[in-house]
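Title: Comparing notes on inverse folding

I've been comparing how different people in this forum approach sequence design from structure. To keep things fair, I'm posting one structure and asking everyone to reply with a full sequence. Here's the target:
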């Protein structure tokens, strides 16, 4: 007796006129909208030395791609190979987001990025989506560390605050290893996706409905 093979395929989902290949991709579009992040879906495909790649999202304000996966790919997978080739050719980050859209258990975010000082592609598994507490801009941060955000607000604040502290205590900290250590600890801030606006965006995306004519957007 021959067993019939069944293939399971994701259901295409329509949101804002785009036909997404999966419900999870559509939820990420809702998430970006909830945070005011501009996105373009499957903007352009690339031939990377014979390997074809069509990234899911292009985020123009970040000049980065986002690839959505149900499960996090391992480092030897074709998905990682394609992302690595694109990063090496463009020097732009590819963020691979994986796992369900669940506010209680955040998706995993892998950053595939270019290191100019090494002329090589590297990966960081500890990436979060955060909001700068000063300018309120949303960004991807390694280890939820807001000191490395693209806006540069925290670095400017650190420099100004250090100058004020030096004036208050009446001495310069240049060359003082102990002072340098404590200043580094003072201005090393981790402000992750626990921010209410980020949590709310995850919740909106998680609760979005696309069946029976519902548009999936924030209610």
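Reply #1:
Here's my take.
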């Amino acid at each position: 007796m021959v067993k019939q093979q069944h293939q399971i395929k994701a259901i295409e989902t329509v949101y804002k006129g785009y036909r997404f290949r999966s419900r999870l991709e559509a939820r990420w579009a809702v998430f970006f909208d909830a945070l005011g992040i501009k996105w373009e879906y499957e903007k352009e495909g690339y031939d990377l030395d014979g390997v074809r790649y069509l990234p899911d999202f292009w985020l123009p304000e970040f000049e980065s791609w986002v690839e959505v996966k149900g499960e996090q790919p391992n480092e030897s997978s074709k998905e990682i190979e394609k992302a690595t080739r694109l990063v090496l050719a463009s020097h732009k980050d590819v963020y691979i987001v994986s796992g369900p859209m669940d506010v209680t258990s955040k998706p995993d975010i892998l950053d595939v990025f270019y290191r100019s000082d090494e002329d090589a592609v590297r990966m960081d598994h500890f990436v979060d989506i955060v909001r700068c507490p000063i300018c309120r801009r949303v960004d991807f941060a390694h280890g939820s560390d807001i000191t490395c955000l693209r806006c540069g607000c925290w670095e400017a604040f650190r420099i100004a605050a250090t100058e004020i502290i030096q004036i208050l205590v009446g001495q310069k900290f240049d060359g003082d290893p102990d002072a340098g250590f404590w200043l580094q600890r003072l201005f090393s801030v981790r402000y992750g996706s626990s921010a209410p606006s980020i949590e709310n965006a995850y919740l909106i995306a998680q609760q979005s409905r696309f069946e029976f004519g519902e548009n999936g957007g924030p209610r």
